[in-house]
Design the sequence.
């Protein structure tokens, strides 16, 4: 989501400079590629994007920014990019596009910023607004390059955030707070995510958090969000592994027992909360027993959905020096968890009978959107309900979500 927020900001500034802008893969004179390096596969896809764009226009000019180019700018310069920058000062890429230099500007990767760069403001043109509140990370998980490519954690000024939310059009019904680690949002150096949520609650828009760490979910935080009128009870808590020994090797700073306590706190306040997570399978030296511990822990928690990733070696990380597992072992474990994911998702949907859905798009005959606890719903309605929040009766599972029957417009 944080990369999407940055990309939307670049689009916004290009429009202000008079450019016609699209985020679709189609013919263009100029392509800007905002790269990702969270996995080796993501970095590979970032490199491949230049070749894919050249199929539309062989004479197009290419401008590259983001984490993959911060990590290795040469991999894009060698493919003909005119301008390659990294994570810092992304919005400056629009100045180079405006000048449209024929001669390559080359490697313009800047040092990582020490403070939050508050120059990326997206034009919010959907029913759901993504508001970036934080960047960087201090966790240094053993498998992850993000702290090296994004820098240390830094928070956006609360007044700036409030002003952006206050300026949102009335037809935007939901705000998603994003960042590399929103859990680490601070005001004057003190953890302050609850304070921010309390300040934003008065705007009357649904409030949703992107991925967070279990350390956020203390008693005070849960009591505080339960008192909010507009908070969406969907918690994406990054687990990564249900094995205590693997978590130690990952340099994750909690045990499965502590993670489970956080889940129980949430469910004591929000019995039907959507609790989703990320899991890495095939971490270096992961034994069959450790994998089975993860399977059993996932069954105990009963997540509403899983995002499953096969471990991807990232050079420069601590984990890259450990023995990798064979691809076939990773794939077999992935398939086991994928089957469990489908089972848990179906179980969670069956627990929910009613919901309020923000209708974000139309797919064929269905209006489509998400409930507050993040069930994707497909709704048939003769009435035009696009952009509305509607109450529904949730039915059987369908296409990764559920069919739902329209009851009435809420707002």
Sequence:
């Amino acid at each position: 989501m944080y990369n999407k927020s940055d990309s939307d900001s670049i689009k916004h500034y290009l429009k202000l400079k008079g450019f016609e802008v699209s985020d679709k893969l189609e013919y263009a004179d100029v392509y800007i590629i905002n790269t990702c390096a969270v996995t080796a596969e993501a970095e590979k896809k970032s490199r491949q994007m230049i070749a894919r764009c050249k199929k539309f226009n062989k004479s197009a000019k290419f401008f590259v920014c983001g984490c993959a180019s911060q990590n290795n700018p040469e991999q894009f310069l060698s493919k003909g990019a005119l301008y390659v920058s990294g994570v810092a000062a992304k919005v400056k890429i629009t100045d180079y596009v405006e000048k449209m230099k024929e001669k390559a500007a080359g490697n313009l990767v800047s040092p990582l910023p020490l403070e939050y760069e508050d120059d990326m403001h997206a034009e919010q043109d959907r029913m759901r607004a993504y508001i970036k509140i934080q960047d960087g990370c201090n966790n240094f998980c053993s498998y992850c390059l993000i702290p090296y490519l994004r820098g240390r954690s830094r928070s956006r000024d609360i007044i700036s955030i409030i002003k952006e939310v206050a300026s949102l059009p009335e037809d935007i019904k939901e705000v998603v707070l994003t960042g590399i680690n929103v859990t680490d949002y601070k005001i004057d150096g003190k953890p302050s995510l609850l304070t921010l949520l309390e300040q934003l609650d008065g705007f009357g828009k649904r409030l949703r958090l992107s991925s967070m760490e279990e350390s956020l979910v203390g008693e005070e935080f849960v009591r505080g969000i339960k008192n909010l009128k507009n908070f969406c009870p969907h918690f994406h808590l990054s687990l990564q592994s249900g094995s205590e020994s693997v978590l130690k090797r990952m340099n994750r700073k909690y045990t499965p027992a502590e993670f489970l306590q956080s889940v129980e706190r949430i469910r004591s306040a929000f019995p039907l909360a959507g609790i989703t997570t990320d899991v890495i399978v095939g971490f270096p030296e992961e034994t069959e027993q450790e994998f089975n511990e993860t399977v059993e822990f996932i069954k105990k928690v009963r997540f509403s959905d899983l995002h499953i990733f096969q471990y991807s070696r990232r050079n420069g990380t601590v984990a890259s020096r450990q023995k990798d597992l064979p691809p076939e072992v990773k794939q077999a474990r992935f398939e086991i968890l994928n089957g469990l994911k489908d089972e848990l998702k179906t179980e969670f949907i069956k627990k929910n009978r009613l919901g309020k859905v923000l209708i974000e798009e139309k797919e064929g005959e269905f209006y489509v959107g998400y409930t507050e606890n993040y069930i994707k719903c497909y709704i048939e309605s003769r009435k035009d309900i696009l952009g509305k929040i509607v109450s529904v009766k949730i039915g059987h599972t369908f296409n990764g979500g559920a069919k739902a029957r329209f009851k009435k417009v809420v707002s």
